Amino acid sequence: MQNSIEANARSTVPKASGSLLNFMKKHYFLYLMLAPALILTLIFKYGPMYGAIIAFKDFSPIKGIMGSEWVGFYNFEKFLSSPNFEVIFMNTLKLSFFGLVLSFPVPILLALMLNQVRRSAIKKNIQLFLYAPNFISVVVVVGMLFIFLSPTGPINQIFTWATGEPMMFMSRPEYFRWIYILSDIWTSAGWASIIYVAALANVDPELHNAANLDGANLLQRIRHIDLPTIRPIMAIVFILAAGGIMSIGFEKAYLMQTATNLPTSEIIPTYVYKIGLQSGDYAYSAAVGLFNSLINVVLLITVNFIVKKLNEGDGLY
């Protein structure tokens, strides 16, 4: 019986180029469905990689990419030796790291709590309330932050009543990271919990019933039934989040910047924008952006390796 199953499995896998072509002809409709996503990926993801060449050149718009002179790693050395490097790099790393540590558990906790709500109508209303902030524009979110946290805003009215003076939330550098991270959790945590809610919906109710008969309390059921179910998804989400730890959203950080909070709000994406588009130093900004991407790739590979070792093979690849 086992030999026949293995033979059938091997028969479905193309063994040579000829059989591969026949396999593709037989399942051409599936490849046609895949084609739009593949074409868009090639155009918008791999196509722009050609422009990364300017990071190694003394780029001139008049001469073009191929006509500009090669300078090797000069632009990278310029960034690494600049007085702004340490401040910008550490700001980016701190904002990303603290954001990952504080925001990663929140969707999991929300999903576990939603899973305990048994009444469908109440659960749907709670989900609507949690998912709604994800659809608010970043510009609107930052505008709300400036309104609510302004010296005359509702939050500062409470501080003024309690302490006698308002708190300068948006202009003090020490408040920038907390405001950025907490507002990011508010807008994205509910939406990020969807994948965990879907995974928990597949848990067999008989497992919880059996655990109840054995005297397991709520925390024990979550620990031994719910968490093992979503553990592979947690591993993949964590790897992707850690791999993109240096890829902070440019728009929100740039919109939240003020002249007085720059010591903590100036990060690599905003620096690339100012150097590249505002100052016109395209080659240098491309080198900074490529440096940031290389760090993300190294972190992705490293974190995936560590998680696979610690999590019994559950990794991204």
Automatic annotation (TrEMBL):
It is found in: Cell membrane. The keyword Membrane applies. The keyword Transmembrane helix applies. Residues 89-303 form the ABC transmembrane type-1 domain. Gene3D superfamilies: MetI-like. It is a multi-pass membrane protein. InterPro entries: MetI-like, MetI-like_sf, UgpAE/MalFG_permease. The chain crosses the membrane at residues 28-47, 95-114, 126-149, 178-199, 230-250, 282-307. It comes from the Bacteria. Keywords: Cell membrane, Membrane, Transmembrane, Transmembrane helix, Transport. Its main location: membrane. PROSITE patterns: ABC_TM1. PANTHER family: BLL4140 PROTEIN (PTHR43227). This is ABC transporter permease.
